[in-house]
Structure formats: C-alpha cells, structure tokens
UniProtKB/TrEMBL annotation:
InterPro entries: Bud23-like (IPR039769), Methyltransf_25 (IPR041698), SAM-dependent_MTases_sf (IPR029063). It comes from Populus deltoides (Eastern poplar). Residues 235-245 have a biased composition (Acidic residues). Keywords: Cytoplasm, Methyltransferase, Nucleus, S-adenosyl-L-methionine, Transferase. This is Methyltransferase domain-containing protein. Belongs to the class I-like SAM-binding methyltransferase superfamily. BUD23/WBSCR22 family.
Length: 276
C-alpha cells in the first residue's frame, strides 16, 4: 500500500487533530519545512529593496512555512483545508492571516464575491505579490469525492491564482508528482490559466535530495529570466550534461533559476512528513 498521504485520505481527514499535532511537534519536519520554504522564497526572486511583500502560502498547515516568510520580513495569508492544522497555527500565534478553504473548489471563506470569484482561491485581483506552496498542490490530482474531477479542480485553482497575483509576480510550488503524467497535468493546467514557467529540479541525480519546484510567472515577467547553472552537491556548478538533463523537464517559456540546495535527511518517500 502506498505511503503517499494524498492516496490514504483527503487532507482534511488525514490531518486530524492527532496527525496535525504530531506533525507540528517534529523537529525534523520543522527543519525540512524551513529549508524547503527558504528555497521556494529564493525562487520567487523578489526584489531586494527592503519592502515587505504580501505573499500567499497555499496549504499553509500549522504555519511552519509562514514563519519563514515572517522571518524574511514579509506579510502573508495562509490557506488550508484542514481545520485541525489551522487550529494549531492559531495556538502558535503565527503572524499570517489564516483562511479555511479548499484551493480547488468553491471558496467558502469569502462571504461575497463578484461573478467569477466563486472558484479556487477567491481573493481580490492583483493583490498578491507572490505565492508559495510546500507539498500541497499534488493533492488536487486525486478525486477524493465523487464530485471531484482533477482537471476541473486544477483549472479552478490556477485560474483563481492567476487572477489574484500581481502582474509579473511568481508562484513557486514544491511538489511531489506521483508520475510524469501527473506532473504534466499540473503544468498544462498552469499554462492554460495563462502562466509561463516550468520545473526546477534540485539534485536530479540524488535519490535522497531530489526536489521538484514548479516556478510560474503571471503575465509578462518583470524580473530577469536568465538561467544560472545549477549547483551540485559539492557546491559547484553542475556539468553541461547535468544542466541539460535537468532542463528536459522545463517544458514552457519562462526560464527559471535552477540552483540546487541539498537536503541531507529528506528522501523522496519522506514527503508523507513534509506538509506544513
């Protein structure tokens, strides 16, 4: 039986009070979450001007990733479907604003919205300066209810995300696609919503350290799109062969940074513990 949490139960059921508290109390998970969030923030490529940005943490859980955003001087809004996770975030007095809702369905956390805002994130157009998500977006690829259609849920999510992001803003999602078909489904859904972007793979040749990040730009990018050479496990640039293999998964228009940061204690199967 698979140990992927998204195949065991819907997130609002899997992350009940017991699982949410166990997750948040693990020092190992806290460390992994911090490093994944730092990497996602790096890939957002925000201007270094000292101005706090309003960021969105999708699948924020108990606020572990949000703490990284706070430590870097940013304001944030966190969205999660697990009431238990959000209750712990409130207990921990995180500094972000928290919303209970399903990123892929009708939004229940906004009382009134104009026509067309009733799907996905339901935030006002253009107010978000960047978005991150750690180990959450792949949940949209599962049909946990008879009414769930993954393609429609991904369409609702990416369409609403595109609307709420400022033009030129980026979204960075650390994901665990189950297979190539699932990765391509997520990418196609993002591109159909209007995003440019692709996949950055940190340490593509390491079974233990490999991590995938979907890096998207909303509208015409306002930042440099030059692609630096990725770093290897020794801290040096990857070889031409490594770089070209990594770029085979960058399927769409926007070049994205591909520097790699090693996570010594995180292997691919450990993602059962790597939600916020």
């Amino acid at each position: 039986m698979s140990n992927r949490p998204e195949l065991l139960a819907p997130p609002e059921i899997f992350y009940d009070d017991s699982e949410a508290r166990k997750y948040t109390s693990s020092s190992r998970i806290i460390d992994i979450q911090a490093r994944l969030s730092e990497r996602a923030l790096e890939l957002l490529a925000l201007s270094v001007d000292g101005i706090p940005r309003l960021l969105l943490d999708i699948g924020c859980g108990s606020g572990l990733s949000g703490e990284t955003l706070t430590e870097n001087g940013h304001q944030w809004i966190g969205l999660d479907v697990s009431q238990s996770m959000l209750n712990i975030a409130l207990e921990r007095e995180v500094e972000g604003d928290l919303l209970l809702g399903d990123m892929g369905q009708d939004a229940s956390f906004v009382p009134l919205w104009p026509s067309g805002w009733d799907k996905g994130l339901a935030l006002r157009p253009g107010i978000i300066d960047g978005a991150i998500s750690i180990s959450a977006v792949q949940w949209l690829c599962n049909a946990d209810k008879s009414s769930h259609e993954p393609r429609l849920r991904l369409k609702a999510f990416f369409g609403s995300l595109y609307r709420c992001l400022a033009r030129g803003a980026r979204a960075v999602f650390q994901v665990y696609p189950e297979n190539i078909a699932q990765r391509e489904l997520i990418l196609r859904s993002a591109m159909h919503a209007g995003f440019a972007g692709g996949v950055v793979i940190d340490y593509p040749h390491s079974a233990k350290s490999r991590k995938e990040y979907l890096v998207l730009a909303c509208g015409a990018p306002s930042i440099s799109t030059a692609v630096p050479r990725g770093k290897g496990e020794d801290g040096e640039s990857c070889s031409e062969d490594e770089s070209s293999e990594e770029n085979q998964t960058t399927l769409y228009a926007l070049p994205v940074p591909a520097a790699a940061h090693q996570l010594d204690d995180a292997d691919d199967d450990a993602h059962i513990n790597e939600r916020k």
